[in-house]
Amino acid sequence: MFLKGFLITSFTLIASHAIAAPVITIQTEYFTVTGNDSNSLYQSLQKNGPIGENGDRYHAVTRWKARWSYSWRETSRWCQLSGVEVSLDIDYLLPKFKALESKPEHLKKSWDNYFQALFKHEQQHKDYGVQAANELEQALLAINERQACSTLQNNMADTAQQILDKYDLLEKEFDRVTNHGLNQGIKLQ
């Protein structure tokens, strides 16, 4: 009898901490660039590109924001986590070449190669956000012990901030190593 009750309790605990993938929302916006050759197109990218958090202008930006909420069971002596929900908002801001279809074939090909490399780089930024959201959900769910409610809240906040800081540093290092994608082939020819 004891073993049967233990199995049921264990199953209930596992079921209440089941990991559901974070809800991901992706939004893509475009800014217009123009040009009749690679040089004028590059100048348009430099003039019209989005401004990053550091104040520099870029050819594209991917921003992500992880959000989380949680619930707990509370008694007069302790709280215990009972659920976690994580969501991730991803916003791409990418260039769109105005009147591309009317341009010479060599410029279209150059743009296609450039844009593919640029988008691949931006997708890596998105992937960092997805990894952060997944890790955030797993880490928050792992905070399973009974604690004072204020301690549980502080542990949740500290854990989340450590993960977000980690991925912020990974993204900065990624941009440093790739020179914001230039080392990955983001060049107009």
Give the mean pLDDT.
88
Low-confidence stretches: 1-17
Binned strand content: 15-25%
* Count of β-strands: 3
End-to-end gap: 75 Å
Radius of gyration: 23 Å
Describe this structure in words.
This protein has 189 residues and is of the alpha+beta class. The protein has a three-stranded mixed sheet. It has four helices and three strands. The protein has one domain (19-184). Helix 3 runs antiparallel to helix 4. The longest helix is centred in the middle third of the chain and has 37 residues, at 105-141. It starts with a helix and ends in an 11-residue tail after the last helix. A hairpin with a 4-residue loop joins strand 2 (61-74) and strand 3 (79-97). It is elongated. Helix content is 49%, strand content 23%.
List the helices and strands and how they pair.
Blueprint (H helix, E strand, L loop, with lengths): L1 H15 L6 E11 L4 H11 L12 E14 L4 E19 L7 H37 L7 H30 L11
Parallel strand pairs: 1-3
Antiparallel strand pairs: 2-3
Helix pairs in contact: 3-4
Which features would summarize this protein structure in a list?
49% helix, 3-stranded mixed beta sheet, single chain, 189 residues, elongated, alpha+beta
Nutshell version of this structure?
The protein is an alpha+beta fold and 189 residues long. The protein contains 4 helices and 3 strands.
